[in-house]
Amino acid sequence: MIVAEQLTKYYGDRAAVTGIDFTIRDGEVVGLLGLNGAGKTTILKILSGLLLPTSGRVTVAGLSMAEQPEQARARIGFLPEQPPLYPEMTVNGYLQFVAHIKSFTGDIDAAITEATAAADLSHVRDHVIATLSNGFQRRVGIAQAIIHKPALILLDEPTSGLDPVQVVQMRDLIRGLRGKNTIMLSSHNLHEIKEVCDRILVIKDGQIAAEGTEAELGKRVTTATKLSVEVRAAAGAFREAMAKAKNVAHFEINTEKDGVTTATVELAKDCREELAKTLVDAGFGLRRFERIELELESIFLELTRKEVQS
Fold it and tell me: Given this model, what pLDDT does residue 97 score?
């Protein structure tokens, strides 16, 4: 659907993004995750055709953004962080205006009906935009992005400035668009990315630090196996067993109460069966023995803190 090759953008002497390469497949929902100022908005503006890269190439559905800009842009819908609204217009009038400036050649009334239904705006089509809440104005921004039936939708911080209820509603709206469209959204909100995205690009200092699913990113951060263990044994006895066990890189006793010890154990390699046997052979009652999966927050902090080797 969309291919970015060696995208680089300088503002004067400052590099906003450098050497960005990625491919987004049809139907995917891909998240750009990074700290504020990492380069997420610059990437989306280049993909949308609003900003020319200093170097590099963008291809949308086989169309070059540099050589066929009008045809490429016609396949893209873009919601900036600040939606380009005219507050004095009604929702219906604004969407008619947007359809005209995007040179939409289909049935405009039908397109507005479809877009407002998708954005849950049907009941406020005749309302003046200025009278709507932030959440509904953001939905109008979504409607303008999809009015011309684009194949690719770009969303820049779509839940920024919304209250918790509006955030949940916006996520539901985005989920409703998946399958019908290819979507790329930017956010520094970890929960938002985790909830709606199939794949994540982690952006650090204008470069892709890592990409993949949450599980794949976790493997980039560490190859160690971390376990949550609960045994019927005294903490001292458990500590002695851990000191003798093979491939235990680190362990930490969390609690000891009524003869039960809980601990976190990190293995240098995945030898869970061997460790479980060691604990049982020591006479401990094994009450819990579970692998701890890294949360996206921990993965993100690690990826943005240091270089990650491929």
Answer: 96
Q: What is the pLDDT of residues 283-305, one digit of tens each?
A: 999 999 998 876 777 777 777 76
CB atoms within 10 A of CB 76: 24
Burial class of residue 278 in the structure, from the number of CB atoms within 10 Å of its CB (0-12 exposed, 13-18 middle, 19+ buried): middle
Which residues of the chain fall below pLDDT 50? 307-310
Ordered domains of the chain (ranges, CATH)? 1-218 (3.40.50.300), 222-292 (3.30.70.100)
Residue 265: predicted pLDDT: 94
Burial profile 185-215: b = 16 or more Cβ within 10 angstroms, e = fewer: bbbbbbebbbebbebbbbbbebbbbbbeebe
Tokens of 192: 């938002």
Average pLDDT, the chain: 90
Name the H helices within the chain.
40-48, 69-73, 91-101, 108-118, 134-146, 164-177, 190-196, 214-221, 235-244, 272-281, 296-305
